[in-house]
Amino acid sequence: MRIILVLFFQGFLFIGLTQGKSKFEIPNFGKHDTIVHHVGYSVSYNHKFKQANWVAYQLTALETVKVVDRQNKFKADPLIYETNLAIDYLKSGYDRGHLAPSADMTYSESSMLESFYYSNMSPQAPLFNRNIWNDLEELTRTWAKEYDSLYIVVGPILGDNLSVIGPHKVAVPKFYYKIILDNQKSKEKCIAFLMKNEDSNLALKSFVVTIDEIELLTGIDFFPKLDASLGKSLESKKCVECWTWGK
User: Fold this and answer.
1) What is the DSSP string of 85-133?
2) Do β-strands 34-37 and 42-46 pair in parallel, antiparallel, or remain unpaired?
3) Which ranges of the chain does DSSP label H, i.e. alpha helix?
4) 98 is known as an active-site residue
5) Active-site residue, from 37, 47, 98, 168
6) Distance, CA of 82 to CA of 85 (rounded, Å)
7) Which residues contact 109 (CB under 8 A, 6 or more apart)?
8) Please, which of 19, 40, 54, 147 could form a disulfide with 111 given CB 3.0 to 4.6 Å?
């Protein structure tokens, strides 16, 4: 049975599930952030920009086994006080781009349905969402199968002077990031991607940056529970050769 927990503490709103969250899964957050835990992912929601600061989740090899089909039932997140944003995306020219992809959530009915909450959406250029971003999502699932379990944090780069869509002024990010941690004992490694919200023919390796670079852009500490010395080493390095890339 799922237990929903709501806590108010010094202005910080926490809503979520009491079970199943690894200490490595959740990035650092401020006391005024809205943090929600769903079955398949956790989200730090930004009411100003009408989307997530980050979405974080663990993806295991077992969870890549498809149990349910994709269900295009977009709707407001019932755990976040926010107007339904469907009208903002309508005829905007942008896709409702998943942060935690629905294809990572095929292991249960609940995780699939929750992946279509608007708290997990961000306005993405169609050719970006359907091409290079999709390629990265597919590669991430391949790595989850190969390395057994990954911790993933994904989100937009938010800030001032972004264009907006719709009556609720949903911000359109210029860049997105995805950060992946393989926390196998004595084999720990990280990789981070920073990608412009546009189509590209470049190889995915071209978008690899250090985690430190993304933390500088966002102000977010993505893996605060890592051992300090290990975290410093992993987050400062750009180790493309640490990962398999196929053909």
Assistant:
1) -HHHHTTSS-EEEESS-GGG-TT-HHHHHHTTBGGGEEEE-HHIIIIIH
2) antiparallel
3) 86-89, 109-114, 126-127, 133-147, 211-218, 228-235
4) yes
5) 98
6) 8
7) 68
8) 40
Number of structural domains in the chain: 1
Q: How far apart (Å, rounded) are the C-alpha atoms in residues 77 and 84?
A: 8
Q: Is residue 59 left, alpha or beta, with left meaning phi > 0 and alpha meaning psi from -120 to 50?
A: beta
Under DSSP, the state recorded for 218 is: H
Contacts of 159 (CB under 8 A, 6+ apart): none
Tell me if 147 sits within 8 A of 182, measured CB to CB: yes
Domain membership of residue 51 (yes or no) is yes
For residue 247, tell me if it sits in a domain. Answer: no
CATH number for the domain that contains residue 105 = 3.40.570.10
Answer yes or no: is 140 within a domain: yes
Other CB atoms within 10 A of residue 216 CB: 10
126 within a domain of the structure (yes/no): yes
Q: What is the pLDDT of residues 120-133, one digit of tens each?
A: 999 999 999 999 99
What pTM value is reported for the model?
A: 0.90
Residue 108 one-letter amino acid: S
| Helix (H) or strand (E) run with residue 181 in it | strand 175-182
- The 10s digit of each residue's pLDDT in 29-69 is 877 789 999 999 999 999 999 999 999 999 999 999 999 99
The tokens 């990280």 sit on which residue? 190
Query: Residue 244 burial by CB count (10 A; 0-12/13-18/19+): exposed, middle or buried?
Result: exposed
User: Domain residues for 200?
Assistant: 4-242
User: How many CA atoms are closer than 13 Å to the CA of 111, on its beta-carbon side?
Assistant: 22
